[in-house]
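JOB MANIFEST
job_type = single_chain_structure
chain_count = 1
residues = 524
[input]
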Amino acid sequence: MSDARHAAMNAKAWPFEEARRVLKRYESGPPEKGHVLFETGYGPSGLPHIGTFGEVARTTMIRRAFETISDIPTRLICFSDDLDGMRKVPDNVPDPEGLREHLQKPLTSVPDPFGKFESFGHHNNAMLRRFLDAFGFEYEFYSATEFYRSGAFDEILLRAAERYDDLMKLMLKTLREERQKTYSIFLPLHPETGRVLYVPIKHVDAKEGTVTFDDERGREWTVPVTGGHVKLQWKPDFGARWAALGVDFEMYGKDHSTNTPVYDGICRILGEKPPEHFTYELFLDENGEKISKSKGNGLTIDEWLTYASTESLSYFMFQKPKTAKRLYFDVIPKAMDEYHQQLRAYPDQPVEKQLENPVFHIHSGDVPTSGMVVPFSMLLNLASVSSAEDREVLWGFIRRYAPEASPESHPDLDQAAGYAVRYYNDFVKPSKVYRAPSDLEREALTELRDKLEAWDGPVDAEALQSIVYAVGRERFEPLRDWFRALYEVLLGASQGPRFGGFVAVYGVSETVALIDKALAGELA
C-alpha cells in the first residue's frame, strides 16, 4: 500500500470517512456489477437548485476519495425524476396560466413554457446538465421517463407486483388512516390523457404483471406495470431505483432522513442491499429560512458565479455538510478568500494535512497554484474607495503593489477583479454609509495621516500594519474599536481588510489623501 493510500485510509476529512464506509461493503470482494455506483437524484419541477449542485459536488468528493483508497471502478449517475406529474404550476416561468391545463401530466409531457425544448422536463434537465457541465463534473445522466419506458426498470416493477402485499404493508404503516384507504405504490398513467393518476388500485395481477383501476370518470382500465404505463410513488420509487441500479451510495437532505428506513425497506423487500447514505443539513437564506425552488429565495448557481469562482462555491459546499449554513450574498467574499488561503497552504503541508485540506477534494488531488497576490476582500475595498466601474481600475493598484502580476500571468486574480467590481456595484455601493469620526478618532486619524506622510520605508504590509497598531494602542481599548472606526470612517463599511495591507495596495499617499477627505467631512 502506497504512503498516500495509507494516509487516506486514516484521513479524517468527511469524504474519506464516507468512502471507507462504501469500501467496507466489498470487504469480501469487488461487486458483481464490476463497479461502485454513486447516485444523486433531482426533481425537475422547477429551475435547477443550488442544493442540487451541492449534492453532486459532495458526492463527487466522496467518489474521488473512494478512488484514492480503492482500485474498484466507479460510476456516478445523476437521476432526474422527470416522469413525475406536474403537481402545481411554477410561478417563475413565462405564461404560467398556459401550463394549467397540463397539471398532473409527466413533466416530459408538459410543453416547455420557454419554447426551447421538447418539454418542460427536457428544459429543466438541460438547465441542470448545463450547470453541472460548467463545473466539469463527470457523470451519467438518467431520465426517469426513459428508464421506465425503455424497459430498464421492468424487472424490478414486475418484482414489485409479485411482492405488492409486503411493499404495501411497509408503506401503509407510514400513512394516516384516511390516506391508507386510497394509497397504492403504483400510479397508473391514464391511457388516454397521459396524466399521472392518484387512484386506488382495484387489483394487482402479479402473474400477468398488470394493475386494474377506475379512472376519475369511473371507467375501468387494466394496464401493464412495465414499459412506462405506471410509475411508482416517490418513496417506493426511491428504494426501487436503488434495487434496480445496484446503488452503493446516495446522499440527500435532512428533510429526507426520516424516510431512510422506508427507502431501505423497499430496497430489501425487492431483494437488494440498500446503499450507504449521507444526510446533509439544509441551506438557509439570510433570514434563516430553508431555500426553496418554488420560493426562489437564497442564491442560485448563476448568481454565485456572477460574483465568484466555481471553486469558491465548491469550497462552501465542502465546509461542514452536517451543519445548516446560510447561503446568501454575504458569504461569497469569505468563501473566495478562504479557498485561496487553503490553496497557498497546500504545497507546504505533509500528505496527511493535504488530505484534510478542502482543495484536495475540490480538485480531486490535482491542486493548482493560487495567483491571488491580493485577497478578494482587499479587491472589494479597492473597488469601494476608487468607485471602480471596471477591473482595469483595480489593476492600476495591483500593478504598483505587485509589478510581476498581469491579467495574463495571474488569470485567477484578473477574474477576481472582475467579480469584485460587480459585487461592489451590486451589493456594497448601495449600502455604503460613511460616518464622521469622533474627537478621539479624529485625533488618531490625524496622527496616522502624519506618520504615513512621513513614512520613507518600503511599502510593506506588515510594517504599515505596525504603524496602524501603534496609533490605535495608545487610545483604544479594545483595539478592534480602532479598526472598526477606520472601516466605517474611511471605507463606509463595518468591517474590512488588514489595514496595513490595504495601505500597501491602495498606496501610502493615496491613503493620506483619503484620510484628509474624511477629516474634511467630504466622505460622510
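[summary]
The longest strand covers residues 36-42.
DSSP finds 23 helices and twelve strands in the chain.
exit_status = 0
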